[in-house]
User: Which sequence fits this backbone?
């Protein structure tokens, strides 16, 4: 079975707090790709990061960081020193390189950063 | 980098009326193109994808159809809209023709069927 679970439906934090968004995936493929997208109130889905299954190095981009752990099938996303502009729905997605090459989406985590 | 255009941005249509949503892509050639629908509650549902001109794969049986008359143009249509067709429609494109390339999204069309 292929599945992406984002257990946190909604998170609310105060500006400058750190926040971690969880993503757990299931797949039988050995080659796959993981993604994070941001959907601000305007609606457009913005690509944030892509990771392939052979690269478990953590990634940092400014205040954003991603922790990919194959042992726990997780690809978590941390925002450091959150800002109001980070308020959005964040989606984690899985793409298998096998026969079913379609994005499998989590249901998203709605993050509200309050001033 | 590629740019994806969608229009109209918003649309209010009566039940039973036809629909045509357009998506065009700039900055890449021979992309894979996708139509998604996002209903209230956030889940993304893949409706159609296309690997080339005239090649359409349908993921969900419904009263919608898709066409790809040009390499970088993807159209979503309906002959008669239903209330359940309301939602946010997103077009996505990959650079080049590989399924494993990253999908980039357009700004979306918000459709309300009354």
Assistant:
């Amino acid at each position: 079975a292929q599945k992406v679970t984002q257990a946190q439906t909604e998170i609310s934090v105060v500006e400058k707090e750190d926040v971690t968004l969880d993503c757990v995936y299931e797949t039988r493929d050995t080659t796959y790709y993981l993604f994070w997208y941001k959907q601000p109130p305007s609606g457009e889905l913005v690509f944030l990061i892509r990771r392939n299954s052979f690269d478990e190095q953590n990634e940092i981009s400014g205040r954003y960081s991603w922790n990919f752990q194959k042992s726990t099938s997780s690809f978590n996303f941390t925002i450091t020193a959150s800002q109001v502009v980070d308020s959005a729905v964040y989606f984690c997605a899985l793409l298998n390189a096998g026969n079913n090459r379609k994005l499998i989406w989590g249901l998203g985590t709605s993050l509200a950063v309050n001033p | 980098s590629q740019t994806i255009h969608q229009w109209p941005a918003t649309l209010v249509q009566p039940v039973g009326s036809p629909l045509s949503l357009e998506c065009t892509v700039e900055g890449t050639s021979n992309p894979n193109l996708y139509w998604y629908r996002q209903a209230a509650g956030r889940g993304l549902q893949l409706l159609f994808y296309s690997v080339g001109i005239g090649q359409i794969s349908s993921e969900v049986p419904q009263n919608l159809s898709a066409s790809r008359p040009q390499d970088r143009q993807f159209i979503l249509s309906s002959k008669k809209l239903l209330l359940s067709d309301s939602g946010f429609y997103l077009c996505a494109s990959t650079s080049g023709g590989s399924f494993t390339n990253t999908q980039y999204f357009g700004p979306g069309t918000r459709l309300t069927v009354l």
Remarks:
- The mean pLDDT of chain A is 93.
- The radius of gyration of chain A is 14 Å.
